[in-house]
Amino acid sequence: MKEPGPTGRQEYDVSSEAISPESGVRLHDEFGRFRDGLVAHCYRMTGSYQDAEDAVQETYLRAVRGMAGFEGRSSLKTWLYRIATNTCITALHHRSRRVLPAGLGAPATDPDTAIHTDESIAWLEPLPDAALGHRDSDPGELVVMRESVRLALIAALQYLPVRQRAAFLLREVLSWSAAEIAETLDISVAAVKSLLQRARSRFDELDLADQRSSAPDLAAERALLDRYVAAFEAGDAAAIRSVIHDDFSLEAVPHPVWFKGVHVCLPFLERNAFAGDYRALPTRSNGEPAMATYRRDESGALVAGGLWVLTLVDGRFSRAVNFHDARFVIAAGLPARLPA
Q1: How does DSSP assign 103-144, residue by residue?
Q2: What is the pLDDT of residues 140-198, one digit of tens each?
Q3: Is residue 255 within a helix (H) or strand (E), and if so which, with residue range?
Q4: pLDDT value of position 273
Q5: What single DSSP character describes residue 302?
Q6: Are the C-beta atoms of residues 298 and 254 closer than 8 Å to each other?
Q7: What's this model's pTM, rounded to 2 decimal places?
Q8: For the CA atoms of 196, 198, 203, 206, what is the dihedral angle to 10 degrees?
Q9: What is the CATH number of the domain that holds 66?
Q10: How many domains does the chain have?
Q11: Which of 71, 93, 115 is the last residue of a domain?
Q12: I want to staple 101 with a disulfide (CB 3.0 to 4.6 A). Which of 183, 228, 258, 263 is the partner?
């Protein structure tokens, strides 16, 4: 396998004694076409961008090793998704579910509450839209891809046991039949239907009120995001107030403490996020508006600090989750440093 390029996207080496050169070239070409969808699928399964990339790399290696035994009873795409699904199930066997701060308990009511870092928690990660690339993707598939990686949905999926999660995603996102899911999971059709029933019941219990019910207006989203970015750079709490809901929530990974309500969130931003010389760039992540933040260091350079993913509901933002990790800024196709 070749080293990843500057964006972190992986290229693949088809050289292998297990398959013919012709089969290797076909697999390489087909895998390139399906790669974005596989990354999105593995991200839905794992809740981690890095884990999804690792699972897709392992999927490719397993496909190379198993290509000689591929009998063509299903499409190559279906075969690859089966491999990817089982790769994720194996990887998740002994891992904790990934969470966002809101999944850990009630919000803090005092904007002066001390913030601390907890790296022992398995945190949910964002999936920058640029990380998918959307090469040769069908427009309809792109819409499904963006909608099915929204943060609220990914966080909710983490509450499902792994096999329920797999069955649910294969059915509800990829529209597979119960028979196809049964073959993938090596269980009966009746067992698949039981998994789906339990998964849907669990989803009914979860609060997914901020899930979008209609296609996004990208132009309107960008206009509102530009206002949020400008207000953030200016440290203008009043301007931010004009684009957020009353029950706006503020979270930051890897900090367990989070806040809800403008009466708490805005004072916290004024005393913390607005303290310092910041710049922000608009982008997109998880099919939602996002911004990358940069803070000036001692040398005068602006250094990437993290990626904020914003949830838009009814014309205003209802939630902001700040992922304090420059890797996600780079994955969004943005520079690690801005010129002084």
Answers
A1: GSSPPBS-TTPPP---TTS-B----BGGGTTTTT--HHHHHH
A2: 666 777 789 999 999 999 999 999 999 999 999 999 999 999 999 999 999 999 999 99
A3: strand 255-260
A4: 82
A5: E
A6: no
A7: 0.88
A8: -170
A9: 1.10.1740.10
A10: 2
A11: 93
A12: 258
